[in-house]
Amino acid sequence: MQLGMIGLGKMGANMTTRLVRGGHEVVAYDRDAAAVKRSEGDGATGAGSLQDLVSKLKAPRAVWIMVPAGAPTDSTINDLLNLLQPGDVIIDGGNSRWTESKERYARCKPRGVSFVDAGTSGGVWGLANGYCLMVGGDEDVVKRVEPIFLTLAPKDGYAHVGPSGAGHFSKMVHNGIEYGMLAAYGEGFEILEKSEYAYDLHQLAALWLHGSVVRSWLLELAELALRDDPKLGNVKGWVADSGEGRWTVQAAIDENVPAPVITMSLLSRFVSRQDESFSAKVIAALRNQFGGHAIKAESGEIVGDSAAPKGGS
């Protein structure tokens, strides 16, 4: 079928290529003209603007948005609503917050434009392996654009999971689980690296891929990373978050669901961004005050006992 793809970053460009290879006709647009040229080279029809993209699609149109969550997605939808017609469909495959997806669905409905939220997992490997798709929206609309999902996903990798917002809610929780898994792998490998044994971490990662209960695709990626850089010397221990972990924790709070692993994995990312923790400074200063414990000065010098009375631990 025919589809418009807006946003040709790492995910959008690969999805465009996979769809073209699957026999679909894709009209591709990105603010970066060079990205459009690359997709044209892969078989897509290029567009120079949103208006140009819409004009090259036959009604009823289907348009997939693959742009950053938040304001960029909102702006794109607002612009599209001034160009699309009743019967057309907007699919948001980005990491939008599920509550915003419900609001966008409600905004599109009076215009006769359908809105579908497609939680998309697969990263840069999706071109070869396919994308896991968790899709929310009206059943008849999802069914109409289902050929797109079936091409993008591997076998059994796509499902219509519920009404508006359900796709992005499930993707949010998926990413929250991912936070916890990543933290567990990170902590485990650090314990190994700091131990008295001179472990070959790549060897262990490769070993665990065979029959171990902790084997997973994430472990496969760890094995690849450690094979290329056994000490991870080229990697700075600074970890970003794109929002889904925070939203998952907030949903857990709203639902009175205890989620300590996901919550702590999110907070540990915040720690990674500090050159020096002020919280740790406060703790060190207090331990020095109540217990006379040594502290390390800014110069690196270890400062001895405090003049404060000793006590505590």
Give a nutshell description of this structure.
The chain has helices spanning 10-21, 33-41, 50-55, 71-81, 98-108, 126-129, 139-144, 146-152, 166-194, 201-208, 217-228, 244-254, 260-272, 278-291, and strands at residues 2-6, 25-29, 45-46, 62-65, 89-92, 114-121, 132-136, 158-162, 295-296, 302-303. With 313 residues, the chain is of the alpha/beta class. The chain has an 8-stranded mixed sheet, sandwiched between helices. Strands 9-10 form a two-stranded antiparallel sheet.
Q: Report the helical percentage.
A: 40-55%
Number of strands: 10
Strand content: 5-15%
Label the overall shape. Answer: elongated
* Mean of all residue-level pLDDT scores: 92
Q: Which strand order spans the largest sheet, edge to edge or round the barrel?
A: 3-2-1-4-5-6-7-8
Q: Spans with pLDDT under 50 lasting ≥5 residues?
A: 306-311
Distance between the termini: 69 Å
Tell me about the largest β-sheet: 8 strands, mixed
Please report the number of helical segments: 14
Structural class: alpha/beta
The rounded Rg comes to 24 Å
Order of helices and strands: EHEHEHEHEHEHEHHEHHHHHHEE
